[in-house]
Amino acid sequence: MAKTFWKMRELILNFFSYSFAVALERLCSFLLIPLYASTFTVAEFGVIDIVQTTIGVVLIFAFLQLETSLQRYYYEYESKERKIFAFTIFSVILLLVLLLVLLVCIYAETLSVLLCENTQYAYAFRIAAIQMPFSALSTLSLILLRFENKVFLFATSVIIKSILLIALMFVFLRFSGMGLQGFFMSQLLAVFFSSVLSLIFIRKLLAFSFSKTAFLKSLRYAIPQFPARVGVSINSSSNRFFILGYLDTYTLGIFSMALKFGSIMQLFQQTFMMAWNQFLFKILQKENHKKMIQSMLDLLSPPLFFLVSCITVFSQDLIKVMADDKYLDSSKYVGMLGLSISFLVLTEIVNVGPKIVQKTQYISINFFMSLIVNIVTLFLGVRFFALPGVAFSMFLANAVLCAISLITTEYLYRVDFHWRLLLFTLMPVLALSLYVMLGGDLTLGMKWICVFTLLLLYIPFFMSAYTRYKKIML
Question: Residue 234's domain spans which residues?
Fold first, then answer.
């Protein structure tokens, strides 16, 4: 029992340790918003988003979900075998990345015409593509640092990258006036230097030897999840392509700025994912691990929804302070987008069944069912409701994904999640997000009343969950 307590304590410590590093990275991104808002037009901001989204989708095909195999089997190997296993994953992913970089560079003009209606931005696609190998190396290196509990080195790598990015953005945008080209060059140089630093940190964790056995084992675990990862990517990025198809780059710029602020929740998602997988695979041998998993959903949802509520209420004030009046319309969508991202956090918890029983094909099935919902609602939403329809379809798709994942886990590996409690805590923040998105106005007094009312509502739910958690530990 004492060991179980320390495992939970380790999850919390890891969460806050990694949160600190990633929070600084996100903070740096926020600090750059005034610079972006004063430098780029709304349409140019939309171009930046579509280029980054496209490169992000391409990068998925380089990883093939092999990074999940790295996390799943890392602790099963010891000493030199572990180093060989890590190098095997690194080498395969890097080879695939280099092939995709070549393809993007060759077809950059075609991509620019298809997505931006001219060849003017082909250079942006090429510079962004060259970032991919360094992004992949950085991502894999940070996974190893996490699993080796090198929190200080992890934080150092992330912080240095953030500082470099800020410095380079100011040099290329403010002082050199290079515009979009300066934006992508800054990102390229920052990720290059941070990936080199990360590789220096993990150099002793790799052995330059390829294991065919480890590769095939990893592939068997990863490939069933790959369609799901593609589905997630389409779920999260298809809205951009629908906006471009039915609306324009200006509207995409408004949507992108809303996502910048809604991505506060991505900070929570990313840091939780870093700590959760490591925690999950360590507690599976514990007798009461199902209760521990169940308690995490009950503990997490109240503070998560309260945070979304605060972002929703004060979104207009945030944009006035951080951005420019030309982006003010973005504030209506921040809350709904933040709420949709919060469901990805909850999905991480309720999606444990397929991972535990190693039937990861169910993950792909779930994501494709969610994808169908997303595409249908996007098609109808963007045609009849424009941008509000896009934002709501994103929420609906992620909510459906969470629900299907919960049902799948209960079928494969019954945990008995308290789903009715989750629905009850969702209703207030969903109503608030819809009200603001549809043009509802809140005075300063009303904003604070909303915040304190929701705080009084969510505190009892959190304390009740915490009491149940303490009983588990007895």
Answer: 225-474
Cα–Cα dist 414/407, whole Å: 9
Query: Which residues have a Cβ under 8 Å from the Cβ of 120 and sit 6 or more positions away?
Result: 112
What is the percent of the chain with per-residue pLDDT over 70, rounded to a whole number? 91
Angstrom distance (rounded) from CA 329 to CA 255 = 9
Kindly state whether residue 1 falls inside one of the protein's structural domains. no
- Whether 164 is in a domain gets the answer yes
Q: Tokens 């890590």 label which residue?
A: 86
DSSP labels, 195-213: HHHHHHHHGGG--S---HH
As given in the structure block, the two tokens for residue 42 are 């709304």
Residue 440 φ then ψ, to 5°:
-65, 135
Q: Is the dihedral of CA 182, 183, 186, 188 positive or negative?
A: negative
SS3 474: coil
Question: Total structural domains in the chain?
Answer: 2
Residue 4 clears pLDDT 50, i.e. is over it: no
Residues 6+ apart with CB under 8 A from 8: 279, 292, 473
* Same domain for 253 and 158: no
All residues at 6 or more sequence positions from 240 whose CB lies less than 8 Å from its CB, including other chains: 49, 50, 53, 252, 255
Give the Cα separation of 312 and 301 in Å (integer).
16
Q: State pLDDT tens for residues 439-457.
A: 888 888 899 999 999 999 9
Using alpha carbons, select from 319, 322, 323, 340 the residue that is nearest to residue 331.
Answer: 319
The span from the CA of 316 to the CA of 75, in Å, is 46
pLDDT one-digit tens code per residue, 118-148: 888 899 999 999 999 999 999 899 888 888 8
CA gap 468, 461 in Å, rounded: 11
CA atoms within 13 A on the CB side of 41: 6
pLDDT at 7 over 70: no
Shared-domain flag, residues 351 and 422: yes
92 confidence band (pLDDT: 50, 70, 90): very high
d(CA 375, CA 381): 10
Q: What is the pTM for the complete model shown?
A: 0.72
* pLDDT band with cut points at 50, 70 and 90 for residue 13: low
Give the DSSP H or E segment for 317: helix 315-322
Residues 86, 80: Cα–Cα separation, whole Å: 10
Here the tokens at position 247 are 């609306």
142 contacts: CB under 8 Å, gap ≥ 6: 154, 157, 158, 198
Answer for the pair 69, 88: CB distance below 8 angstroms, yes or no. Answer: no
